[in-house]
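Here is an idea for our session: we take a single protein and study its fold together. To get us started, please write out a protein record for me. Once you have written the record down, we can walk along the chain together.
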Amino acid sequence: MKTIDIKPISDFLTATLKEKIDLKTKPVGALGQLESIALQVGRIQNTLSPSLQKPYIIVFAGDHGITEEGVSPYPQEVTYQMVFNFLKGGAAINVFSKQNGIDLKVVDAGVNFDFDDHENLIKAKMGFGTKNFANSSAMDIKVCEKAIEKGANCVSKIIDAGSNIVGFGEMGIGNTSSASVLMSVITGIPIEDCVGAGTGLDGVGISHKKEVLKKAINSHFILKDPIEVLALFGGFEIAMMVGAFLKAAERQITIMVDGFIVTSALLVASKINKNVLDYCVFTHTSHEKGHQKMLAYLKAKPLLNIGMRLGEGTGGAIAYPIIKSAILFLNEMASFDSAGVSNKNEEIEIV
């Protein structure tokens, strides 16, 4: 696998950016997380006047062999049916992306279906779904490394076209199982605390899912290397998101982090290169069990918590206007000096 060189975001303008933020016509800290986002994006772009150019969301889709174990209430064919829905413009991510002026691309990372060409479809298929990790490795290590590289290439093309802010989404029946196991193995959190309802399992279904995943973990000899763990339990779409995260950070652009599955890919990426986290804006807390624990492990402060657990990149699309607001206030809001407003520390001369 090609080496990814991610530089920590620069501190060169940190003090000046903080001063610019603090001298806006407001009490210090009054805009809350908007202020921290403005500071972060300014540091990422290394400028006092950052901008958001050509926002994109890339939805990576892939199928999972673990569905053979009955871990999802939906059949595997829903994956390719939803990809068709994305391409026709009928999914939630289409609606929210269109609402907020975000371009959308869908990547066939490993769906169990052959798609015709489409202007919004990127064909990068690694196979027709992963193997069932309950009884074998989900993918070969070389295949996993190739998937990471393909994900990196996908995001590079979008950056080359002028984008400096990107979010990732996913579609794949069974991928909450992969995400749960990746989370448990990497963080050490018991699998029972990582497993949720996914696409809508009831209590009996969740118990069965926990048992299947616990047995799967115990059936493998697990190494500490994050790519080895990813190859054992990941999905093609998750592996490609790992590569996309790493490349986007290497190219020094802002990354919008969606929900549970996307964050599991970031978790793996952060074990490959921890500096990737500098470039991430965590858009929301998923209602999927385990996501809050994963966010806490990453020391993340998400922007929203509105009970969403859909995936597809919808959290990023919904939160993008908040990030935009942070940039607008930094660039367009008056300072005390330019507005002729007295700051609290200034003495007012009485004539």
Observations:
- The first helix runs from residue 14 to 22.
- The chain has one domain: 56-329.
- Confidence is low (pLDDT under 50) at residues 347-351.
- The domain at 56-329 is CATH 3.40.50.10210 (Rossmann fold).
